[in-house]
Description:
Elements: E1 5-13, E2 19-26, E3 31-35, H1 42-57, H2 65-74, H3 82-103, H4 107-110, E4 119-127, H5 130-142, E5 147-152, E6 174-175, E7 181-184, H6 186-204, E8 209-213, H7 220-230, E9 237-239, H8 250-256, E10 261-263, H9 270-278, E11 284-285, H10 294-307, E12 311-312, H11 322-333, E13 341-342, H12 350-353, E14 354-356, E15 359-361, E16 364-366, E17 375-377, H13 379-383, E18 390-391, E19 394-397, E20 402-403
Helix pairs in contact: 1-3, 2-3, 3-10, 5-6, 6-7, 7-8, 9-10, 10-11
The protein binds (2S,3R,4R)-2,3,4,5-tetrahydroxy-N-oxo-pentanamide and cobalt (II) ion.
Residues 213, 215, 239-240, 265 line the site of cobalt (II) ion.
Amino acid sequence: MSNTIVSADVIVTSPSRNYVTVKVTTADGLVGWGDATLNGRELSVASYLRDHLAPALVGRDADRIEDVWQLFYRGVYWRRGPVTMAAIGAVDTALWDIKGKALGVPVYQLLGGAVREQILTYTHATGWDLPALCESVDHVLARGFRAVRVQSGVPGLNRVYGVTRGAQAYEPAGRGSGPAEETWDTGAYLRHAPQMLRAIREHVGPDIDLLHDVHHRLTPTEAVQLGKAVEPVNLFWLEDVTPAENQQLLRQVRAQTSVPLAIGEVFNTVWDCQQLITERLIDYIRTAVVHAGGISHIRKILNLAEVFQVKGAPHGPSDVSPISLSASLHVGLSTTNFAIQEYMGYDPLVSEVFRSSFTFRDGYLHPGDEPGLGVTVDEEAAARFPYEQAYLPIARRRDGTMTDW
Ligand SMILES: O=NC(=O)[C@@H](O)[C@H](O)[C@H](O)CO
Ligand SMILES: [Co+2]
């Protein structure tokens, strides 16, 4: 029995959108898969893996997951950031997949076993105007979801984060050699969002969990204004109300509004959100397996969060591949302070490449009981969808000032 790593390959494929996957193989022929997708910077992570981590993996013991993590985190001197932590996270996830397969158990059993039967999930409803948004919400509820994120257009603006003009699913990254540019107007948004959210609450009644993503676009003062205005809507959360690199800025929002706050999808280590957690400036931490160092590091973030009664609610858009979504579900099934999993769903082309065993039923997800993570990659199919350059949009205010998209 030799769990020596004999190869680590990187697969870049684009079934409806770009994904980066690492494939780790052991001398015994076990294969582990990890997601390294970083929307708009996929090739940077592919290079970090191909040029630096893969050569260092060959010959190592696949069993030594934590030691490999520490080697790749501390052994390169330069730390943190989305590219590094996505690369480390992909390797970490693949090694947990291998360990589960070697022992013949699903990864959640390696993490302490199930603490719940299934995992609450939410998905996206989008509509440029209220009738379109209500229709989208009804469609989501008819599919069995009991929690839904609602995003609408903003009067006076022509494109806004999170919303499509038609019925097609929202895919933020646009193909092309550079990002699309959107105009943002905070005043127009603040005049519109509260009444939109009140109207949706009216539409769905009191028992559906409603979430809204502000997507980093307000100042703390503006976030207080929005938070106060929507308190009667009884939201499950307001997400990313303000850029949180300066974590202490959330103190102002926290002190003046009771709306639950969720932050973290753009963070990559526990140190990026340590103050948000230990000062309880948020209710939900959104860091994702793929962008925050894999299963090993997400667990450390969630363990810290548990001490401060902050709950886990990982990022789960279409650019988080089925591999890290599954990994998130294995963590979610075995972590007491895990609250809800974002699940945007995938274009049908994605399942031609990624064969997943997780299941959705009546608003809940379950990772399945396959050994490992329960996802495999069809490399033949992956080769049919070559990488296509694509970028997330940027946003400028009406006077041209760069702002958060
Ligand atoms: O909560 N979900 C989100 O904020 C996503 O829609 C992110 O903008 C995209 O995944 C970025 O690639
Ligand atoms: Co978000």
